[in-house]
Amino acid sequence: MKSFKNKQTGVILTPKNKWVEEQLEANNEYEVVGAKASIKPTDDKKAIKDMNKKELVALLKEKGIDANEDMKKDDLLALIPQE
Q1: Which of 30, 41, 55, 60 is placed for a possible disulfide with 67 were both Cys, Cβ 3.0 to 4.6 Å?
Q2: Which pLDDT belongs to residue 28?
Q3: pLDDT computed for residue 35 by the predictor
Q4: What is the pLDDT of residue 37?
């Protein structure tokens, strides 16, 4: 599942519908920032799904993706790009 970043606002969308995904790919106002769950943890010992919210936020910010600890863990996991 791909995520898309609005080039103007920085908002990241992760569509759950293939048609919506195709529309965002065709829209020049959005860029693909990845797909779900491919960032490897920094210590290679802890799986991403086992990270706490603070660790996930740090990992996402390291990759240049807007995230904060007020977000739900599932929402943070959805922002993780797949390479």
Answers
A1: 60
A2: 92
A3: 57
A4: 45
The whole-model pTM stands at 0.46
Domain coverage including residue 55? 2-79
CB atoms within 10 A of CB 60: 21
Average pLDDT over residues 45-58: 85
Residues 6+ apart with CB under 8 A from 83: 34, 38, 39
Tokens 């919506």 correspond to: 20
Neighbours of 30 (CB within 10 A): 19
Strands 30-35 and 2-6: antiparallel
Amino acid 57 reads V
Per-residue HEC secondary structure of the chain comes to: CEEEEECCCCCEECCCCHHHHHHHHHCCCEEEEEECCCCCCCCCCCCHHHCCHHHHHHHHHHCCCCCCCCCCHHHHHHHCCCC
How many domains is the chain built from? 1
